[in-house]
Amino acid sequence: MKVVVPVKQVALLDDEFELLDDGSGVDPDSLEWDLNEWDSFSLEAAVQIKEAAGEGEVLAVTVGDEEAEEGLLSALAKGADRGIRVWDEDLADAGPLAVARVLAAAIEPESPDLVLCGVQSSDAVNSATGIALAGYLDLAHVAVVKSIELNSGSATVERELEGGLVEILRIGLPALLTIQTGINEPRYATLRAIKQARDKPLAVMTLSDLGLGADAVEAADGSHRRRLAHPEKGEGAEMLNGSTAEVAARIAEIVRERVG
Amino acid sequence: MAGILVIAEARRGELREVSFELIGAALSLKAQAGGPVAVAIVDPEAEKHAPALGSDGVDEVLTVTSPPPGFEAHVAQRALEALISEADPDVVIAAHSIDALGFIPAVAAAGGFGFASDVTALGWDGGPIATRGAYGDKLVAEYDFPGKATTLLLLRVGIFAPAQPGSGSVVARAVTVDGLDGAARSEHLDYREVQEGDVDITKSEFLLSIGRGVEDKDNIERFEELAEKLGATLSVSRPLVDAGWMPSSRQVGQSGKTVKPRVYLAMGISGAVQHLAGMRGADTIIAVNTDPEAPIFTVAHYGAVQDMFELADALEQSLS
Amino acid sequence: MARDPKYDILFEPIQIGPKTLKNRFYQVPHCIGAGSEKPGMQAYHRGMKAEGGWGACCTEYCSIHPESDDTSRVSARIWDEGDVRNLAAMTDRLHQFGALAGIELWYGGPHAPCMESRATPRGPSQIASDFELNIFPRYMDKDDINEVQQMYVDAAIRARDAGFDIVYVYGAHAYLPFQFLSPFYNRRTDEYGGSFENRARFWRESLEKVREAVGDDCAIASRFAVDHLLGPTSIQVGEDGVRFVEYCDDLVDLWDLTVGDIAEWGQNAGPSRFFEENHEKPFTGQVKAGNHTNKPVVGVGRVTNPDTMVAIIKSGQFDIIGAARPSISDPFLPKKIEEGRLDDIRECIGCNQCISRWEIGGPPMVCTQNATAGEEYRRGWHPEKFHPAANREKSVLVIGAGPAGMECAMVLGKREMAAVHLVEADAEIGGSVNWISQLGHSDGKENLFRGTARGLGEWKRIVNYRQIQLDKLRNVEVHLKSRLSAQEVLEYGAEIVIVATGCHYATDGMNAATHAPIDGADTSLDWQFTPDQVVSGAKPVGKRVLILENEAYFMGVSIAQKLAGEGHEVTFVTQAGEIADYMHYTLEAPMLHRDLDRLGVDIHTYTMLEKIEPGVCHAYDVWNPAHKERFEVDSVVLCTARISNDELYRELKADQARLESEGIEQLFVIGDAAAPRMIVDSIFDGHRLAREIDSPNPAMPLPFIRERRLWGDASNEDYKAQLLNTPDVVVA
After folding, report:
1. For residues B269-290, average pLDDT
2. Is C70 exposed, middle or buried (0-12, 13-18, 19+ CB in 10 A)?
3. Half-sphere exposure of C441 (CA within 13 A, CB side)
4. Superfamily for C395-502+669-692?
5. Averaged pLDDT for residues C548-552
6. What is the pLDDT of residues C440-496, one digit of tens each?
7. What is the fold of C5-360?
8. What H or E segment, with its residue span, contains residue C358?
9. Domain spans, chain B
10. Which of C175, C465, C553, C582 is catalytic?
């Protein structure tokens, strides 16, 4: 049973962050890094699957620079057996489709039974990389999974829909699932596991190692960020005036609009 | 401008409300950029949904009848690919919804299209411009899609003004997609409603949050009732937990939980810094307080200087 | 980070007589157990607040003469040149940090028993103190009055020489000037008694004389209890209270307002279980609200929230935010507001442990939230500065995230240990604080006197603060829902293991009085309970319940309040002569008594149980065991003793060979797991170990400076030498 878990080291902005003068990005000193919250759930799901099968391998893969090494080591400490980090200067501004393209190149040779991605990352929140990856790998896929039950050759999963509804479906393996938080109780790594993670195989690859050209990656990238700015400060709240009844009616309307 | 294609959504035989927000957004974009707007619905009962999708300004409604019982990601992908192939639109507009997220990124990948998700504003500058948040909405980013003949955009739900449903004046055209019936790679087994377990206020889309203004432990019940009527989950600020009136699992704030609901309706909460830290990421913040200087008004989107008890009564009135 | 402009008002200077107070943060006089005879402790404790941004720091009550001697309670003294020299250490240090120094000149009258000086205190009328047992004052005739007023003057001059900027004539807490003003104490028929002006005369004259002596150089302050809370028999704010302020307004540069007296000064230093933030407002707030003064006013109310502080000043309630306990809990509160680090503020929980040590008479102050309070000089601890540990390449496993574990992990994190893992069996950190903080409520009704039982919810701030700090520490990981076995601890991979697994209540009635279990006691039965079982609600408590309490602090009585508040018929039994003895020291006892009385709790002191049977408890009179009593009850709650949860520690310790082979170099046990104690002491225990984790033998506390007289000529260095070199000492 080989399960591949793409992971991402996400950037958390300091409370007092600085934008670069040309608006092209955030001052790197403003950033703190951590493993994406969703990925600890997908990783835990993968490790549980491997433990239940009694055999197999969990491979953690990431696209990122040296900062991302920490996230990969964290995944290795929590039970992944092997890690791959892909990085190239040309990947510095890669959007979700480009990242998915690169991940696909790294993962394809592994022929996994299952690829488990987090539904989204907490910094970019594209919620797209996982399913895009499925597209590149041409894998059957389900997004926003909150429970997995493996059968032989297939999986019964629950898909979390809006409004507290859940859809139960079956999908054949190999497949890619994007995993929602709360699906399990992610284990933590003991100090020993953290130390031992450094001894697990961790390959660092470039685009050329994967046989990918920078232009292929660029072509895959679905968007180009042309501006980054602070949100416009509203003038504070829009005050609702009038009688209590009028205000209440307006609030009820807003609620209806926003919640449905 | 070759055209805008809107991907409407249906579930369990009903059109989803977000479809009209998408149409509204498409019509606004049409006003800026020109080009015909086609609205497509892929659903076993597509033809039944079609009339409503013909809002004023929509040029074409396309129906793709998919195999029952409902949405399937790979079927949806095949259908969309066929629709794009046929119409070659500049922009495809769908919702940033569970269904759309389940297939549209794969379409973008496979087709080499432009793509952006959780879009909060749309523009046009020779091509589509999409605005979305960055670093979890702490910043705002603008994207363009140079070199992309078709761009797929997933719009944030609850942001764009919805169009009025059509009255059937736009005649729908059925589109046949080759191999659609065999495209499914997953099998629907069932639906189920989720049980209410332990209250987890971080999972609620709508929080009614009360603070010191409630004054007395005995008054909390009144707001529990209101929450229920509103379909909201009740949360509190710290003073109520300090006083032992509510458990800390309900507490929003720095030392409690950080929440990001669609709507955060705060009543009788002044907005201490530690509280604001826990809820300022909510999509829509409505604050009610008798003190016009209350700090919570600095982060709220809507504010009302009202007595929370009177307003609670009035809210219940307007709901009934 | 920057200061939020809405707090700018707190940093506006204000003129107090000839002095400028640089901001609105004012540490009002409060006791710390230092006085003039521990000048290092005095200077460094007050100095820490000045360093933390407080605009003024005051001494505790400062005796002006040996006739005002509160031994064994520790006051400051300014009797002679030696005291001047010692207190100058404090003023120097405050001035270094740009703060004003205040001295609260005090003459106690019969409230001060003079057990060291053996002098005879004087008073306006010969009525024994309502605070101290059986101490009578000598009646003051006119010569006595002049003599005592001269004591104030002489003391004020010495105070100025010592470098003080603000000199108080202290008439709050029912000390001498107030004793003249209040008809409760003053039964005189001469020109110092009777009418308002007569009763105010002593105080007014004292202010005049002190002002004349030092008023050009020093700001003259007066601390005044605007309402004695005894109704018409004494000073009421709406009557003589505001009248007195108006009457002496021209003589005062600063009013420091309080309520109450010394006999029940918990009405002023209100514990959080009965009093909310800014609780004195209805009284002290009337002075400015009614335009009774043209002078700046400072007042208190255990205010910890910066937004409340802003509201207090903006609304005109006070001009200056006074604080005692909030400044003990966080000497750096002003700096943190200035720097926009509000989430770093360590809020006072209103437990009054600090006060309890003064009440006991002798011990240095402590603070539940701030383990460095009282240790600034004698251990060189700074609440905000931590030296990197010499052995910081080591990784640490802390087992148990209760008060001791949280504190230890936090300080180890701040001392830059390579990795600290804090592992907790429960779903949240906090340990026993999580369930203890749910206690303290009764029936929610108004007490017989000013307030309700609000509960111990503010004690949860112990957890709130540490939660936030632990989250910020990159080298600390907190893992929940994980109960580690000895095997898992051994394999964890830490070089240092610290066991902080807390304690549990005895299930068999084991207690400190008889040193034996009680026949029939067994809390596994469904009608017998330990206190935590009552709070968890796992088994229902019967209608008639007996609580046996042998611990002398809050647990038994809090359970009584809870159950009586919920409608049970509660019988409270304790072998002691007093219920919850320690709560006298925390000033919680009077309100507690009122609550329990009102709730109809049936209290039996000097009573012990000898046997428990279904439906009946057999008790006896401890002074005459043959005198028996039967209590017919449905349930029994045993708050008799706590026992360390030290099995894990013992198991680990027993296998030295295994510890070695797994690379565990050091094993420690802290907090209740070592020995059950009060929360303040558990936090201290965890803090100390972390501060000394890099000493040669961390389990053994390093020596601290004892400020005692060394025979022969001794210098400050001789005292400092007592402090062995540890890397984490900041004695500047």
Report:
1. 87
2. buried
3. 18
4. NAD(P)-binding Rossmann-like Domain (3.40.50.720)
5. 96
6. 999 888 877 787 898 999 999 999 999 999 999 999 999 999 999 999 999 999 999
7. TIM Barrel (3.20.20)
8. helix C353-360
9. 4-174, 201-319
10. C175
Only one residue has tokens 């279980």, namely C273
Q: Catalytic annotation on C107?
A: no
Considering only the beta carbons, identify the residue of C306, C455, C467 that sits closest to B255.
C467
Fold of the domain built from segment(s) C507-643? FAD/NAD(P)-binding domain (3.50.50)
A/B interface, count of CB pairs below 8 Å = 259
C residues 466-485 closer than 8 Å to B (CB): 467-468
- The chain A residue lying nearest B304, using CA atoms, is A240
- The pLDDT confidence band at residue C717, using thresholds 50, 70 and 90, is confident
Nearest-CA distance A196 → chain C (Å): 10
Q: Does the pLDDT value for residue C730 go beyond 50?
A: no
CA of C677, closest CA in chain A: separation in Å?
A: 30
- Which stretch of B17-26, B132-141, C246-255 has the lowest confidence by average pLDDT? B132-141
In chain A, what percentage of residues exceed pLDDT 70?
97
Q: What is the mean pLDDT of residues C163-171?
A: 98
Distance CA A39, CA A118 (A): 5
Give the C-alpha separation, C443 to C439, whole Å: 12
Report the pLDDT averaged over residues C710-721.
84
Domain B4-174: give its CATH superfamily.
Answer: HUPs (3.40.50.620)
Q: Does B217 touch chain A (CB under 8 A)?
A: no
Put simply, whether A192 touches C (Cβ < 8 Å) is: yes
pTM for this model (two decimals): 0.91
- The SS3 call for residue B121 is strand
Backbone angles phi, psi at A126, to 5 degrees: -80, -30
Choose, out of A117, A154, A247, the residue to mutate when testing the contact with B (most B CBs < 10 Å). Answer: A247
Domain boundary assignment for chain C:
5-360, 395-502+669-692, 507-643
Q: What is the DSSP letter of C610?
A: E
Judged by CB atoms closer than 8 Å, whether chains meet at C481 and A16 is answered as: no
Contact C546, C611 (CB under 8 A): no
Query: Three-class SS of residue A256?
Result: helix
- By 3-state DSSP, what share of chain C in percent is helix, strand and coil, each rounded to 5? 35, 20, 45
Examine the pLDDT at C716 and tell me if it is beyond 50: yes
Question: Which residue is closest to C314 within chain B, CA to CA?
Answer: B293
Is the complex ipTM higher than 0.95?
A: no
Q: Which CATH architecture has domain A2-259?
A: 3-Layer(aba) Sandwich (3.40)
Residue A194 contacts C, CB cutoff 8 Å:
yes
Total Cβ atoms within 10 A of residue B193: 9
Q: Cβ of B295 under 8 Å from any chain A Cβ?
A: no
Closest CA to C496 of C347, C240, C695: C695
Per-chain mean pLDDT for chain B: 91
Range C665-687 average pLDDT: 98
Q: Among C2, C482, C492, whose Cβ lies nearest the Cβ of A192?
A: C492
- Closest-CA distance of chain B to residue A186, Å: 18
- Please give the residue of chain B at the shortest CA–CA distance from C452: B243
Cβ B244–C463 below 8 Å, yes or no? no
CATH architecture, domain defined by B201-319: 3-Layer(aba) Sandwich (3.40)
